[in-house]
Amino acid sequence: MCFVRQRSGDAMVLTTYGRSSGFCIDPIEKKPLNHFYPGSSVLSFGTAGCNLACKFCQNWDISKSREMDRLMDTASPERIAQVASAQGCRSIAFTYNDPVIFAEYALDCAHAAHAAGLQTVAVTAGYIHAQPRQEFYAAMDAANVDLKGFTEDFYFKQTGAHLAPVLETLEYIHHETDCWLEITTLIIPGHNDADAELDAMTRWIAAHLGTEVPLHFTAFHPDYKMLDVAPTPASTLQRARRIGIANGLNYVYTGNVHDTQGGTTFCPGCSEALIVRDWYRILEFNADEHGACGACGTNLAGHFAAFAGSFGRRRIPVRVGV
Q1: What end-to-end distance do the CA atoms of the chain give, in Å?
Q2: What is the pLDDT of residues 86-112, one digit of tens each?
Q3: What is the C-alpha separation between 26 and 37, in angstroms, rounded?
């Protein structure tokens, strides 16, 4: 199903090791991560293949490709870390397709990144067995997990997967590792946007993960096998955000839309606007290098450093080479 593994003798080998669909320098907010060194840049790449079958996949030309000639760039883990460092990136992100599909390559890149003083980021659906999950997340400094919905019916019919393993991964990352966790839910009109489902999801997050884990509600656009579904209205994202906040979550965001209110990080202590964003661009940064509120001193959850400016909405393709 993933298209990227084959038997070689008595081993199952990763046929895409060392090969990428392309490298780009992105803002960290695009992953999306709003509480992991805001304003910094990240070297992003993926390979091909996926272990889910999402009908709404926004990167289906990569994740569902059987054409290995899409993998244009070849690079060693050490070379990737070298280029990321030279380009001034704080981190390397394994993204575009799920990194659990190229786990061996991602882990080797993570070790090379750490040796070069860089951070690592996984953008993933969190659909992975317990044993490899331990090794994988031990090498990640941050993860954004795509919680695609909150019913088993949605998961099975729309992704070919199951909800329970993803919830187990979320609890494992948050409670058993040092990996910083944020969650994204792509809101699809008529499929996972009902008030009752959003209420159940955000209540579960508050009860099982706590109120400090950031949650991003992002806008769907018609793609792949869901061309007949309308794009998500901004009002739907704002409604979802209100539900999450009402259930006690401190950091609930809207994404893939221009919504300054929904993109802003507010102090959970005094409600001061600390990090004001428009899409991926930071307009104001009113916290110190530890993420503390300048008005009341409350610390934001996450990882912060002295703010050196916003990378903005740029997307810079780079050639890495061997």
Answers
A1: 28
A2: 999 999 999 988 999 999 999 999 999
A3: 13
Nearest one of 181, 84, 165 to 123, comparing CA atoms: 181
CB 188 within 8 A of CB 232: yes
| pLDDT tens digit sequence for 246-289 | 999 999 999 999 999 999 999 999 999 999 999 999 999 999 99
pLDDT in tens, 105-143: 999 999 999 999 999 999 999 999 999 999 999 999 999
CA dist 211 and 311 (Å) reads: 28
Task: List, in order, residues 6 or more apart from 242 with CB less than 8 Å away.
Answer: none
How many CB atoms neighbour CB 114 within 10 A?
A: 15
Distance in angstroms (rounded) separating the CA atoms of residues 311 and 187: 26
- Residue by residue, DSSP assigns 230-248 as PPPPHHHHHHHHHHHHHTT
User: 112: which 2 tokens?
Assistant: 């090379």
Token pair of 182 as six digits: 């944020």
- What is the spatial distance between Cα 300 and Cα 298, in angstroms, rounded to a whole number? 7
Helix or strand (DSSP H, E) at 180: strand 180-187
Helix 163-176 / helix 152-159 crossing angle, nearest 10 deg: 110
Q: Parallel, antiparallel, or unpaired for β 5-8 and 11-14?
A: antiparallel
Q: Which residues contact 157 (CB under 8 A, 6 or more apart)?
A: none
The answer, yes or no, to whether the previous bond of 32 is cis (omega within 30 of 0) is: yes
CA dist 49 to 20, 21, 320, Å?
Answer: 11, 11, 21
Please give the model's pTM, rounded to 2 decimal places: 0.95
**CB-based contacts of 313: which residues, under 8 Å, 6+ apart?**
27, 279, 280, 281
In SS3 terms, 93-160 reads as EECCCCHHHHHHHHHHHHHHHHHCCCEEEEEECCCCCHHHHHHHHHCCCEEEEECCCCCHHHHHHHHC
Contact assessment for residue 24 and residue 318, using Cβ atoms and an 8 Å cutoff: yes
